[in-house]
Amino acid sequence: MIYRALVVGAGIAGIQASLDIANSGYEVILVEQEPSIGGHMAQLSETFPTLDCSQCILTPRTVEVGHHDHIKLYTYSTIEGIEQDEQGDFLVRIRRKAAYVDWDLCTGCGVCQEKCPFKVESLFERGIGTRKVIYTLSPQAVPNKPVIDADHCRYLQSKWDIESGRVPAFDSKGNPAKPKCGACEKFCPTGAIDWEQKDQIIEEKVGAVILATGYDLISQMRLPEYGGGKFENVIDGLAFERLLSASGPTAGKILRPSDGKVPREVVFVQCSGSRDPERGVPYCSKICCMYTAKQAILYKHHVPDGQAYVFYIDVRAGGKGYEEFINRAMEEDGVVYLRGKVSRLFPEGDKIIVKGVDTLSKRTIEIASDLVVLATAVIPRHTNRAIGELFGVQSDENDFYLSANEEMEPVLSAVPRVFIAGCALGPKDIPETVAQASGAAAKVLSLFQQEKVLSSTPVSVSAGEME
Amino acid sequence: MTLSYFPGCTLSTKAVGYDRSGRAVAHALGMDFVELPEWQCCGATFPLATDNAMALIAPTRMLQKAEQAGGDVTTLCAICFHVLRRSQVFLEKHDDVLERINWFTEEPYHGKAHVTHFLEVLRDQLTWEGLRQKITQPLKGLKVAPYYGCLLLRPPNEIQLDDPEDPHILHDCLAALGCEVISFPYQSECCGSYLAVSKPELPQKLAEEIIQSALRHGAQAIVTACPLCQFNLDYPQRAEAGFRKQTLPILYFTQLMAVALGLPEADWGIENHYVDPLGLLENYLPASVQSVNSRE
After folding, report:
1. Would you say residue B124 lies in a domain?
2. Which residue of B158, B165, B202 is the best one to mutate when testing the A interface, meaning the one whose CB has the most A CBs within 10 A?
3. How far does CA B33 lie from the centroid of its chain?
4. Residue numbers of the domain that contains B160
5. CATH number at residue B259
6. Which of A40, A263, A430, B65 has a 20 to 30 A CA-CA distance from A76?
């Protein structure tokens, strides 16, 4: 067996598992599809129930991963294929997407991002902010090396147009046509921009695998009664995290997307798509009760004279300090909790009208709000099932991975030497994810250790030597 | 071409204008309505109890008549459509219930009827483009807000007419007539339905919200496909109530179609409205008729 592990996904689960294995002296291959590591935790402002700054507790770990001797980091990369040999080791083919930047030459100075003249909508900022076409996900990005978004890059697009003949090779004056822009290349002090870079396929051999592919939020398109994503001032939980975040598009000010005004009345809608077998997903997304309370508290800290309302089916706050946290939101911060669902949202003037019901007072309620935050359901990454299938790992009807035994062996898949951790198995919060990632790492370490003992040459000891 | 037609009781009493305009429009489009023989009540509500065989007898009788008449049956009333379509779908899936019902009815129903709303016929058989070509008096500049209500669209998996959250079938129909179509947020809100009988103040309140919203969005009229919606929105605006300064005519889509197809005023069926829409529609009378009117 090769004593080296592959970790797929570099969110907090993948990071924790990689560090645990690497710190025990084994090599780790860590693969992440985004340009930077950290996953969704890098998007969060603060964490519940302690209100720690998410970046501050995450960054030491991302930096450690970036510098670790035993961790080989492949960002902006995906798993292309898997082969298993007779010994059970995995030959992994990794596609390293073309970044058009030579990361060995790049010093991470950031001049290219300053000079790039084109902005596009940022998925990391949940559509609220923009990013440049050459970008890293955040100022604290690890690795701090940018990639060029080829679909939106003027230089690459015009270069390919010329090469493919879509644009004449010579202009009207007979001069050869040149690609446009190229600002990043002009200003890069180390000449790291490499327009000829191609996707690379890299092969690595590993003895064990941890799948930590993480989660996504259900698209608002699937919630037509809440506008289906058409209303600017109806945003999801992650977008509100970006509004709260000091490194976010509003630099930590709560300003609503439509007109940049401070919202005076904010309505939080829990179970948007969760626990809704008819339209959304049948399961509870587990984290929404807590993060909604956190967001409502933080909103009140930012806008003390504002009013926060939370619509809930019931509050699920199982966990150390969790129930107390909810009570704090209600009692100390004056968040109004309304037990009932919201049936519809629609814009009227510059308000979003929230039509709901308070089942405790048995009355229908209408709130003219400035901003609505939907705690949209946690779903697996859309690539979850396909990645699982590469390794032979099965997924359930919701596309979360199936454990070998949900109760007793949650981090084991049914495939030997393949382990699972984090939200790829089902919705969970950060503490639980970290615990599970360490659990999966421990399983890998014990597998390596057992194999070492079993395969080591037996030493015969004579009776005399024993004494 | 003819269409087997189920009028329903409301279209023979309160909503004769809907019936008259509908028949005239169908005739003008070359798909005459042929009334279903011996039709009776559709059942009025689709039963929601678990053991619902008894309440399904009335709609099953009508489905059986439709089956005998060839299978297809079309309606104008959104409630009749709702009850008959849901009964049809339910009985397709529940042979045992159908068998029990057949013990009680005169003639057995074999599950071969197909219920459509006239809007559906227009969309799928005539097509909106086909309709557009037949328009002689395009309703240019007429700002109308389609109002769907609930029964025409829900529950979507059984009714399968349009997306209840973002419907457009009435929008498309009115656009084909040349209207300026206005979307407003209350377009598929409940009108209060039968509570008009037991708790009239509630539909009154809902109607007020719906009308105000349509006015805010600049509508000159609300257009519906349901006689109960029409009544619940129209009645609170009656002159005797006297509290509304600005009134809004509530029309059936067939009435606007009759105008746009250049049919005579007698075919519009607009005389029983509480808010008289004539003033609004007069401008779209064919030029010849208009000049006659002005001479009078």
Report:
1. no
2. B165
3. 15
4. 136-295
5. 3.40.50.11810
6. A430
